[in-house]
Amino acid sequence: MILKSHASLHWREQLKQAITQVDQLAERLTLDPQALAAQIHPQAQAGHFALKVPQAFVERMQPGRLDDPLLLQVLPLSAELETPEGYVPDPLQEQAFNPLPGLIHKYRSRVLLTITGACALHCRYCFRRHFPYSDNQPGGQQREAIVDYLQAHPEINEVILSGGDPLSSPDAHLARWMATLDAVPHIKRLRLHTRFPVAIPERIDDDLLAWVKSTRSQLVFVLHINHPQELDARLIERLQALRAAGVTLLNQSVLLKDINDSALVLAELSERLFDAGVLPYYLHLLDRVQGAAHFALSPTEIETLYQQLLSCLPGFLVPKLVREQPEQPSKTPLGWPFSTR
Ligand code: SF4
């Protein structure tokens, strides 16, 4: 079956048409609706973190395959209802580093800003899947408070806009934030952590490129791509437009069971990223968030896989294997030999 492309639609229209119903997903992928429904949990189509996947992402899935690595990232499996010990709602304890609504100040020289709680798709392993976004979307007055905070902390030279996905916001809103942050003299870099262009490549359009080109700060986009199948020609073309606008492109992945837990898959991902002008940056161990335990690998599996990956790639294409720990002043790189326990 050839899936009809939505590439000609504006990204907002594509977002509106995102799939939220299991039946619809089954039809698009020529899957047996009953077989699909049998795998998912009862709240899969309701609540704040229900099934959500744009057609552009579905177009990269293999029809007829329940084990497709892109499908498995978005499918609310019944396994999410298991609650093994150590899997908690806020594994990084971010709410303890939240001095103002929308601002997380955990690392010395950089802060994280959440300007929206919305995402283009819902990744089932997301460590912020329980984050209280409704309390963390700064409005006008809070924007001033954030600027005051940044002015009072000259050691902060980088602001990271992160998930929810900052590119869910309208371009006018993003342009206002860029101008606000550009006005703080000691901010050198603005970094956007985004999966939106992966979900809907047409998010990189002329309106976005306009504010990208207008900022005085160095701009870095950290994409989130987990599997080479996510990188299609449509996405690569848009990434080239970003590069032409002067944006540095990095990628981070999460190591996920049955999705990218193979050195060959990860090596192919690094090669394809580099071909597209994107540097592999981090390979994250799964954060132990409630509902995501079925994506975890054992320490032995991780060690074996990373050792194989080191032998497959030149060093500059090997993403750093890291774990985030709430009490640490940075991400924790896992050296070699390392302990993943
Ligand atoms: S796009 Fe990012 S923030 Fe949003 S659900 Fe996926 S991993 Fe989480």
Q: For the largest beta sheet, what order do the strands appear in spatially?
A: 1-2-3-4-5-6-7-8-9
Strand elements, count: 9
- Whole-number tally of structural domains: 2
Q: Architecture of the largest domain, according to CATH?
A: Alpha-Beta Barrel
What is the strand content? 5-15%
Low-confidence stretches: none
Spatial separation of the terminal alpha carbons: 44 Å
Attached small molecules:
iron/sulfur cluster
Q: Supply the number of helical segments.
A: 12
CATH class of the largest domain reads: Alpha Beta
CATH superfamily of the largest domain: Aldolase class I
Strand count, sense and closure of the main sheet?
Answer: 9 strands, mixed
Average pLDDT score: 91
What is the string of SSEs from the N terminus onward? HHHHHEEHEHEHHEHEHEHEE
* Share in helix: 25-40%
Task: Describe this structure in a few short sentences.
Keywords: 4Fe-4S, Iron, Iron-sulfur, Isomerase, Metal-binding, Pyridoxal phosphate, S-adenosyl-L-methionine. The chain folds into two domains: 11-81, no CATH class; 94-333, Aldolase class I (TIM Barrel, Alpha-Beta Barrel). It starts with 10 loop residues before the first helix and ends in an 8-residue tail after the last strand.
